[in-house]
Design goal:
Blueprint: H1 4-25, E1 28-31, E2 34-37, H2 39-49, H3 52-67, H4 88-92, H5 94-112, H6 121-134, H7 136-150, H8 155-170, H9 179-188, H10 191-215
Antiparallel strand pairs: 1-2
Helix pairs in contact: 1-2, 1-3, 2-3, 2-5, 2-10, 3-5, 5-6, 6-10, 7-9, 8-9
Length: about 220
């Protein structure tokens, strides 16, 4: 049974990682209309540090912070409009991705005998693959919401569609707008950097944080 102190520590860490997600949301550059941020680093880091429930709570706090109007989303934006915009699908799945990464990484450690505090090279590779699986719901929801907006007869919809076909043309693909073109523009071009920068960096940093917390008497 979790003691009140342990619950307080976990909730405090959840709040910390919500704030960290907001900070890394501002480390961004735009690929056309879609911002690329370092939020995935904070999500994967929170997932490795925290147990599944508290990992998800950290991202729910982040979303509630945005909804309340605090400019915590990329580009210092806040408000409900951010959570119903064309990039909202990614945001909706932050808690799910964080929960899955936490759960799956702990299951991996349990069945393989690995330590998240001292992962071997093969464990880091396994965690990197797990991180890709855990973020699939985020990519898929992001893609579906993005695609929905491209089908709307609005200036925004036409702009998103034009950008997507432009990406396809740059990549040497048929620039006729299709479901596949939308997927490439909203998911495929982001995955390599997410995986080999954000996720890998989190997997490298997390053991150091776990060791530090243990030294401070915090066992997660």
């Amino acid at each position: 049974m979790v003691s009140p102190r342990e619950r307080l520590v976990n909730l405090s860490l959840s709040s910390f990682f919500a704030a960290l997600t907001a900070i890394f949301a501002q480390l961004k550059f735009n690929l056309g209309p879609v911002p690329y941020t370092m939020q995935n680093f904070a999500i994967i880091l929170a997932a490795i540090i925290l147990e599944p429930k508290y990992a998800a709570i950290s991202q729910l706090i982040y979303l509630l912070t945005i909804a309340s109007g605090v400019p915590a989303a990329a580009g210092f934006r806040g408000g409900v409009a951010v959570l119903i915009g064309y990039t909202a699908g990614y945001l909706w799945m932050f808690p799910v991705a964080c929960f899955l990464m936490s759960y799956l990484s702990r299951q991996y450690a349990r069945f393989s005998g690995a330590s998240l505090m001292d992962p071997k090279p093969r464990d880091k590779v396994a965690l990197l693959l797990i991180s890709l699986v855990a973020t699939i719901p985020m990519y898929m929801a992001g893609f579906l919401v993005f695609y929905y907006y491209t089908l709307q007869p609005t200036d925004l919809g036409r702009g998103l569609k034009a950008w997507s076909t432009g990406v396809a043309e740059i990549l040497g693909l048929n620039n006729t707008y299709t479901l596949q073109v939308a997927f490439i523009a909203s998911v495929a071009i982001f995955v390599p950097q997410d995986l080999f920068v954000d996720h890998l960096l989190a997997i490298i940093v997390a053991p150091r944080i776990l060791k530090y917390l243990k030294e401070q008497g915090v066992n997660l």
